[in-house]
Amino acid sequence: MKIEKKTLIGSIIAAGLLLAGLGVYAGYDDPQGADFTPMTIPYQGVLERDGGLVNGTVHFRLSLWNAAAEGTRIWGPEEHEDVTVQDGRFSLIIGETAALSHSHMENKPVFLQIEPQIVGLDADYETLAHRQQLHASPYAIRAYRAMYAETAAVVDSLEDHNIYTNGSNVGIGSAPSASASLRVGGSGGANVELEVNGRIKSEGGSGGIWVADDQFIGATSGGPGLWKNGWRFYVDSAGNSNVSGDLNVSGKVKGKNLDLDCERKEVELPSGDDVQRYLTCSSGYLMTGCGCMSHYRACDGTILTSATRCLIQNGGDRAAWGWAICCRVN
Prior knowledge:
The chain is mainly beta. The chain is built from 2 helices and 22 strands. The protein has a 5-stranded antiparallel sheet, with no helix packed on it. Strands 1, 2, 3 and 6 form a 4-stranded antiparallel sheet that branches. Strands 5-4-7-8 form a 4-stranded antiparallel sheet, with no helix packed on it. Strand 4 and strand 5 form a beta hairpin. The model is unreliable at 1-35 (pLDDT under 50).
């Protein structure tokens, strides 16, 4: 004799709790190990046999499919053994042993297939004739796309506010791809500003900021540096500043406790009106001052002709001496 079984279920309870769970991403596999509530579905049903309510112990096998008949299984099977059935009524927790995630329910119809096995009567599981489609409750539909969230454990995207994610990457702007850990950009050549009240910190000592395709502000082996087809300015491991190329300064260069290396240049001017001599600094030195001296007030004066050269002129019939101070920063 063929055994007929059928299962009735309060569909609003099962499907409603399922999609409400989706709204908060219950059961999400968090890479940092956060404690999320497991995503499960309370399921209540009634089991009949030959028109009568079943009493006893029943094994159940559950699975989710993408079609009412045939189709592809998208979750399961999950087995529940030794379930007590009284007056036909039973309760199960779908997802109790086989993990459920929002991806199993996303953007497609979902159908529940139930296979009972009455202990002592059935040799194997028997598939019920009809699969049941899962539907969302009104609250779950509202929670599927949240407008506001005071606290969100996981956010896939905030597309209405131009924030996109790709795994652990985040993109912010008109339409940037989330192709880096944090990428801020615009479309159509729009200017993008990033205002930071605090610090931009790079871990590992090898990061930096690209300000143009060939210009980079980042970290060298010793400290910060500016790069343009090579490190143009950088701080070495001893804390010294190094410049590759010309250093043009508009304004003043100030400092305290400068380490200067200076030299004194001298020259004797023989007697005679308008006798001239030049004093020139050594390579790498700059002239900080020059002058002329004579016991008989015979000097006409001095002229600084360049940053490294001074002209000294005698103006009498007695000898005079010229001097200059040249310095460089060590």
